[in-house]
Amino acid sequence: EFIPEAAFREAVANALVHRDWDMNSHVRISLFKDRIEIKSPGGLPKGITEEEYLNGEISCLRNPVLGNVFFRMHYIEMFGTGIRRIMESYEEATLKPQFHITENVISVILPVLKSTYEVTADEEKIINALKMRSLLASSEAAAYIGFSKAKTIRLLNSLIEKGYVECRGKGRG
Question: Mean pLDDT in each 10-residue stretch from start to end of the chain (173 residues)?
Fold first, then answer.
């Protein structure tokens, strides 16, 4: 199982139930070696913020008849819980799902489950340091590993791009 079935089912159901049927476009599911991308026509309904959408705080069903049919067929369990279920499916995963929201498209990217990292030896040292202590400032990581701060920041940025590390906070560290 390369993609959690529950996450895939929820992402496809959300794409169909919440899509904007006034747009002359299709739900698009693209398969790649390392991920599946599901794109749904229509951005967020008016009045719902990206944060509310991602936290599952509110659900505005664009297609209530279709939503009710999916609910009665057990394709969806409850309204407004899809994003939370997708994230729970990846709780133990190295890479997490990504959500990209524009005015006209909502994209859900489901990465393939991996048990190993595709990193260099130096990047692996950073990951191992983060496994010991999950929150580190870049200067703390540099001191712990013995790299210069510039090299540590370069490695951290590479790991952020690959999706293995998440940057928190707004400070320079």
Answer: 87 86 89 92 83 76 81 75 86 87 92 79 85 76 87 89 78 60
pLDDT at 78: 65
Partners of residue 6 on adjacent β-strands: none
Measured in whole angstroms, the distance separating CA 21 from the mean position of its chain's CA atoms is 25
- In the chain, how many H helices and how many E strands? 7, 4
Give the Cβ contact number of residue 48 at 10 Å. 14
- Give the span between the Cα atoms of 169 and 103, in whole angstroms: 27
Predicted pLDDT of residue 79: 64
Which residue, among 153, 166, 160, has the nearest Cα to 141 in the 3D structure?
153
- Helices assigned H by DSSP within the chain: 5-17, 50-55, 64-72, 82-89, 121-132, 138-145, 149-162
Q: What is the pLDDT of residue 38?
A: 96
What count of Cα atoms within 13 Å lies in the side-chain half-sphere of residue 149?
A: 7
Helix axes 5-17, 64-72, angle to 10 degrees: 150
Rounded-to-integer distance, Cα 162 and Cα 22, Å: 36
Amino acid at 61: L
Is 19 within 8 Å of 27 (Cβ atoms)? yes
